[in-house]
Amino acid sequence: MTQYDIEEDIIEAAGGEFERRPVPKSHWKSWKSFLGMYAGEHAAGTEFMIGPLFLTTGVSAFDLILGLLAGNLLAVLSWRFLTAEIAVKHRLTLYYQLEKICGKNLVVGYNLANGVLFCFLAGAMITVSATAVGVPFNMEMPKLTDTLPNGMTWVLIVLIIGAVITLIAAKGYDTVSKAANWMSPFIVLAFLACGVVALNQLGINSFSEFWDIWGEGSEPFPGQVKYGFWHVVLWSWFANAAMHVGMSDLSVFRFAKNANSGWTTAAGMYIGHYMAWIAAALLYAVYLKSPEAQLMLSNGEAPPVAPGPLAHNAIGLFGIVAVVLAGWTTANPTIYRAGLAFQAILPKFSTVKVTIIAGSVATIAGLFPAFAMKLLGFVALYGFILAPFGAIIVFEHFLSRKAGVIENYAERTKTKFNNAVLWAWLISFALFYFISIQFDVFLSFVTLPAWICCGALFLVLSKFYQRNR
């Protein structure tokens, strides 16, 4: 046994998460484990933010309802036939699988970016939970335009919530999954109750009355982009682009008994990204009819989107508890993923240590409300940056033999920096980000072209570099 193997055994014994080797059969999990996790993670904190933020874009009822049906279906298919399919074949984390292809030095940069972006997303969810905890303290809620913390009460609440979430995530996948299973039924019931109560508060007793109120939508709020049908389809498909086409959930589905566990993501998409988004949007619709919100709109200001008060207004204490737990069930697995990313950079650190580092970064991010208040834009950018790296894995898995490209090239040749990967990502990112900025194209519209471009360029450049070598 080499020194490297001894170190690997020590790391695995310390963390038990199989970060740098395939998950053994004894640790495979049934579809039920993933059902609870995805239902909990996606009927969670982001939903309390995204639903209301859709209203700020002035989207119509038709575009939202049908757009979400189509976009979420595309997301489920991506998880089942790409992510889960590859995960159960190799049973490796995203980070270790990329290292085999890209080389250790190149993947360090990716892991750092991935981990930090996950921390920012988890921080937004800590912000969401903090808006609920702050209700009994009459805390001033952050506004859509706020960037910095608005008071000491806010800071203390965020720090406490962040510490608790980090400790849960640090206990590993089993604890994260169990926490999601315990909390998800309560949260789903809360979203459903919020939607029903909001409909009653709006005086809606039929679908036609709902259509009359929401109907054709409205003008977007100041500083927001007007959303139509294709905005909703592509945004909802790529809201989790880093997880499915970006392959981040290889780290989750490597524990699955078979690829059919990928279908469990439908629980998250249609309970969370459909019912919960619409229910949360209705909560905000109630608030928009209040004198306070109307006054702000008449002055050209965007009314605040604070999930805690919105849920409390609908279902009282039950709403506060639901928002707190909703933030937890998103932040927990997100911090866990971030910890795995950092662990790939610091392989001698245990999973517990790197998860605590990730949780600390997420907590600091949670102090700044901008990550939550600009969540639609942040999620689109986050997916656009990370998803093309998933194309590297997908194109190699399905097309490398036909293209005559050596699989796991960096590992086989002891290469620490695969230039084909770097140039494929850099060219695709620069080209399509330029198109988005120069021609004012909605970022989610260019995520798929950038993903395909990156994968195709990877095969072409790999053939060139490998032939020369």
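Next protein, fold it too.
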Amino acid sequence: MYVVESKGGAIACMLLALFFLGTWPAILTLLERRGRLPQHTYLDYSITNLLAAVIIALTFGQIGDSKPGMPNFISQLSQDNWPCVLFAMTGGVFLSLGNLSTQYAWAFVGLSVTEVITSSIVVVIGTTLNYFLDDRINKAEILFPGVGCFLIAVCLGSAVHFSNAADNEAKLNGLSNSNKNGTRAVEISKSKETIPNKDRTKDLEDGNAYVEKAKFGTADFLIKVENRRAIKVFGKSTLIGLGITFFAGVSFSVFSPAINLATNDQWGTMKEGVPHLVVYTAFFYFSVSCFVIAIILNIGFLYHPILNLPRSSLKAYLNDWNGRQWALLAGLLCGFGNGFQFMGGQAAGYAAADSVQALPLVSTFWGILLFGEYRKSSRRTYVLLVSMLFMFIVAVGVLMASSGHRK
């Protein structure tokens, strides 16, 4: 079994996790903006998310011989370690609820702000819990100022969202006024029907072809995105999106401490003489429960959709191949990202590994590049956005500097 033991190796794992975990949300957001139902996307994503855990367990978890007190993955499956297995599976349940919630929050609040708020909540709650669970191996005088920076970023993220929402409303009002003057006509589709399969195929292949004629940040662009996207958000309260976002953040706060308990058994739940769960075994059980919850909830949402989404079916999902390869890729990225985060956390402390919650830096890059977020916004929005990102950069640097070394 391969074990990350050096501080440098742990930081390398964190950086890989940071890139993977910041990229997969952008892929799912892209599919939703092109009209693919989130239920279909999340079912595909869940399959490869579990596959990534299996690959990690059968490779890193099986390399070489077992070490004293650290059996290989397959050997550990038959051990009497159910108390810690339940901790790992509880973490998977909360991760699944958080990921499922953010899939809807992205439509309302935007990719960048959603990731900032959820990640900051994770750090404020989850990192504090991990610090005490890890027997304080991280430097408190460095760690908690970093947590404070993330808390400030939450406030700045909310401010960015409200400022940008006001900017978008002003753009749309300006367009409505020009319509009243007879200069142009714009229609916002309120249909709940899905986009015809032929049209959706073209959109998913051509990328942003459907908004090519509208410049990023304009009212035309906002309207054309709304007409194509699966989740219609015009006319809905922004508080809905923020409410979903905060629920997701609280859910995310639980999964890392749960894995910490599963691998290190700080509460002494295992029988004497039974080895602790290795990180690969814990991650496997974690991913299995994440997969089960995702499948149950999303099949239910196919037939009983929320937020006025169109009704679907299992047959329709199986026949929907438009964008499926991207959803499958997103699942792999998320799975490997979580795996690397846990591998780094086991070596340097899970509190320090929460530095990967700086993933909004990556997500914001994709949000601006792919989706035109914050284009043609007000100066106030730009100032708030830069301040938010700056606070994140400071916070992740401080959190990584607090890394300790588990004996």
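About the second fold: The longest helix spans residues 140-180.
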